[in-house]
Amino acid sequence: MHNDLYAALDIGGTKIAGALVSGDGRILLRSQAPTPAREDGARVMGAVSTVLDTLIADPRWGRASALGIGSAGPVDASAGTVSPVNVPGWRGFPLVERVRNATGGLPVTLVGDGVAMTAAEHWQGAARGYDNALCMVVSTGVGGGLVLGGKLHPGPTGNAGHIGHISVDLDGDPCPCGGRGCVERIASGPNIARRALESGWQPGPDGDATAAAVAAAARAGDPVAVASYQRAAQALAAGIAATATLVEIDIAVIGGGVAGAGEVLFAPLRRALHDYATLSFVQHLKIAPALMGTDAGLVGAAAAASLSAQGETAAVGS
């Protein structure tokens, strides 16, 4: 794999990023365009084409053996389609077919963005060396992916490991997904901030009411801010423990903006996990912060393409 070259796309509601990635995980070229998320599907695809054109124009493009896409979801890798919640113009959009046509028939692998992050963390990051792992993105939403038996496990449609929509509060608030009491409804950044505000937390003079501002208040000892993060940690712990009980993971890796709160999140998370992960085969589960940062989507998409080319994962939209 070290001599190979892969193309990668990271599709999100804010930006569309592209890269050429070496076989050892180094990003050799980057390209980026804003996502015209409120425009029609053709305009959004136009932004993808702009990013691809930069990659294709590079003299190294001819060495690319496959292209991976990590996209905000839901995705359907079996059909090659994407329907990102935050890009209304794409519903069942045939992204794999369009990208394959734009690249002259290059093999294309599609996975959800949580699976892409998981592939990156297992290849180069905090889950490296672990055969069974859950990797999570805790940000505006909560997503995730699984490594089982040493291999990426995207599932038939590329969405396996989507821990954000495990219900951890049976009578909890309705979630936009249609369920109740989902991990995302409790632990995502906007919901951490919402809960703090509803419980009487007051933003500072700058008016910053984000989860990062709540984390800063928690570090300063504000009890309402502390309680909101404790509740998020409890929801994450319940979801992680349920996943570990189901498929026996060795490590849970947590990235995304909310993980940037550091010990404000991780300290209560470790305590809550001790309460929820009680069976003998999950008691030694390790919690670790993600290491790949903002490159996770691109590196993970390249990793998914590589694994697909080697026949090590079934989530192929080509």
TrEMBL record:
Q: Which superkingdom heads the taxonomic lineage of this protein's source?
A: Bacteria
Annotated InterPro entries: ATPase_NBD (IPR043129), ROK (IPR000600), ROK_cs (IPR049874)
Q: Which family does it belong to?
A: Belongs to the ROK (NagC/XylR) family.
PANTHER family associated with the record: N-ACETYLMANNOSAMINE KINASE (PTHR18964:SF169), ROK (REPRESSOR, ORF, KINASE) FAMILY (PTHR18964)
- The name this protein carries in UniProt is ROK family protein
Source organism of this protein record: Streptomyces beijiangensis
